[in-house]
Amino acid sequence: MSAQPTAAPELPLAGIRVIDFTQVMMGPVCTQMLGDYGADVVKIERAGAGDLSRSTFPPQGGIDNPIFCSLNRNKRSVALDLRDAASMAQVKALIAGADVVVNNFRAGVMERMGLGYEDCAKLAPRIVYAVGTGFGESGPYAHKGGQDVLAQAMSGTMARRADPSLPLSVYPTALADYSAGMHMVQGILLALLQRQRSGVGQKISVSLYDSMLAMQMQEAAMIMMRDTEVNWAAMPLSGVFETRDSPLVLVGAFKANPLRDICAALELPDLSLDARFVDPDAQFANKAELQRQFRDRFATNTRAHWLQRLEAQDLLCAPVRDMREVLNDPQTLHNRMILESPASDAAAYRFIASPITMSSACVVLRRVPPRLGQHTAEVLAELGTKAAGRAS
């Protein structure tokens, strides 16, 4: 079942064909964004199995796995056995007529199949060939399996906590996968732009590891240039605090004397006059006592009460909410961050939309996430049509 193409202004990537060998998250989140903005994304999947995320969790509400669906709208699925010579010939024919090839296999996998960059560039000199790996295509970890949690651990991200007394833990959102996927989008778009000038394609490469390092650019620069640690979550005037009913977060920064204003909001004596908290160094040295006083005060009233008082002092603060609250928040709805399939569709699809808003390129659900191999006959038939067109 596919949603019918929606009449709209031409999207920026209309006419760009992407041959997508990716699976799980890093690659699919990249190719989904390309598809959202008009690219014809042809997803090559293993016959009989498909993308691993089709079976990551037991399907809920029917045969459509929400994990897979969240990453694979606006794509067409072609299921092939790449060990079969005829199927491999069809894949190469697809690449010969494509603009972009994307994969996120371990280093060397595509080369062993005869689908490395040099192979694809012979088929299509203008090809933009994008590779996503765990740690890089070469080097000591090139052949190590890449995964978001491993990248968190090996990049230093997991070791950084608001308080060293807290146990180490896995961050529950796939930061490395998403950031690397977005870096891959950027690399592909840059390569397509350069191709307009040079007439030839190129290879671009990103890794989970590098993306997590890049995310810590401020912290890394402080260590390399001043041999000093910086931890934004450990600032003495910031933190998550429990109120009488639910938690809030406070960021005491970007003001001349934020402690004075926090004390005014909490109806405490002005602790910025106390020698223990008179300047940032003193506040760091006595953070435990300072935050104890904050916690005790926040516990005396409700979150709504304290948010109102903090905002009256122009302090940065917010409620700590769960995902169900966020999905129904009026700002989420106002920003059109929920993308839904038409009510007439037999199955209901609801996704997070693209976070990029363009005034003349509105993202719509042109195609619902495909069934495994749903478009195999359609896409392969197009090869014959194109061949006939070249012959005539």
Quick description:
This protein is an alpha/beta fold.
Explained architecture:
- The chain is α/β, with parallel strands linked by helices and 392 residues long.
- The chain has two domains: 17-217 and 326-391, Crotonobetainyl-coa:carnitine coa-transferase, domain 1 (Rossmann fold, 3-Layer(aba) Sandwich); 247-319, no CATH class.
- The protein has helices at residues 26-36, 66-69, 85-96, 109-112, 117-123, 148-154, 175-198, 208-215, 217-226, 258-266, 280-285, 287-298, 303-312, 323-327, 330-334, 376-391; strands at 17-20, 40-46, 75-80, 100-103, 128-133, 202-207, 238-242, 247-251, 316-319, 338-340, 350-352.
- The strands form three sheets. A six-stranded parallel β-sheet has the order 3-2-1-4-5-6, with helices on both faces.
- β2 (40-46), α2 (66-69) and β3 (75-80) form a beta-alpha-beta unit.
- α1 crosses α7 (175-198), α7 (175-198) crosses α8 (208-215) and α10 (258-266) packs across α13 (303-312).
